[in-house]
Amino acid sequence: MAMTTTEPSHQAQVSARTSQAFERLAEPFRREIKVHCYRMLGSLHEAEDAVQETYLRAWRSFDSFVEGSFRGWLYRIATNVCLNAIESRKLVQRLLPDQLAPAAATIQMPDGPPSTELAWLEPYPDSNLEGIADDAPNPEARYTSREAVQLAFVAAIQVLPPRQRATLLLCDVLGWAATEAATLLGGSIASINSALQRARETLAKRYPDARNRASQQMTNRRHAEHCDDAPDPQAMLYE
Question: What domains sit in the chain, N to C, each tagged with a CATH number?
Fold first, then answer.
């Protein structure tokens, strides 16, 4: 008796094509989404869980994605997943060094890099950084991609309120404009700029390298503007 092969149903074929389309779009960003979640959460294991949740939500909502940046859409989902995870931490005490003393004691947070010997902070494996660019993604970013996964930097930003932390990562690490961050996080551009300014001020007290970022960036911009305004030597030869 001849064996017959059962052909997949139309629905199964559509589902398979959808799955392939999603994988083709989403998988190239998995590594950088994981890095973003790590920066937000400070824990490699929690970042891995956040990535899984991000991709699950993205898959379930894939039909709702229309035009626009798929990468930006993934970052929006990932950031919200991380913000929810941080919110759920309120039930679990996670203390930084200045919070370990009795309530009556007056403790000042030390200047400079924070201690990286915090039980819930984990370094990011170098082997997981393959494919991550060494430099900043664009001139608007204040930190290079690899510097922003160093334990000292990640430890420093953990003291920032979640919204400020997300804003700083989006604008100063990923190089997003305030308008893009406002779209992702919700709120006005003014509120994003305000959150970013407060985050930078706090970070400057805990991460010394941050103190020189603004002045260096301004110097670079002025130099670029000067070069743009300078007359073209070749053109001057023909005047």
Answer: 22-92 (1.10.1740.10), 132-225 (1.10.10.10)
CA 21, CA 65: separation in Å to the nearest integer? 12
pLDDT along the chain (239 residues), means of 10: 47 62 93 95 94 96 87 95 89 51 41 48 82 67 87 92 96 94 94 96 83 50 48 45
By the 8 A CB rule, do 143 and 173 touch? yes
Q: How many residues does the chain have?
A: 239
Task: Read off the amino acid at residue 42.
Answer: G
pLDDT for the residue numbered 128: 79
pTM: predicted TM-score of the whole model, two decimal places:
0.73
| 34-39-44-49 Cα dihedral, nearest 10 degrees | -50
Q: Where are the alpha helices (DSSP H) in 121-232?
A: 151-157, 162-168, 178-185, 189-206, 213-229
By the 8 A CB rule, do 53 and 128 touch? no
HEC sequence for 167-178: HHHHHHHCCCCH
Which position has the token pair 């626009």? 68
pLDDT of residue 103: 43
- Provide Rg for the chain, Cα atoms: 23
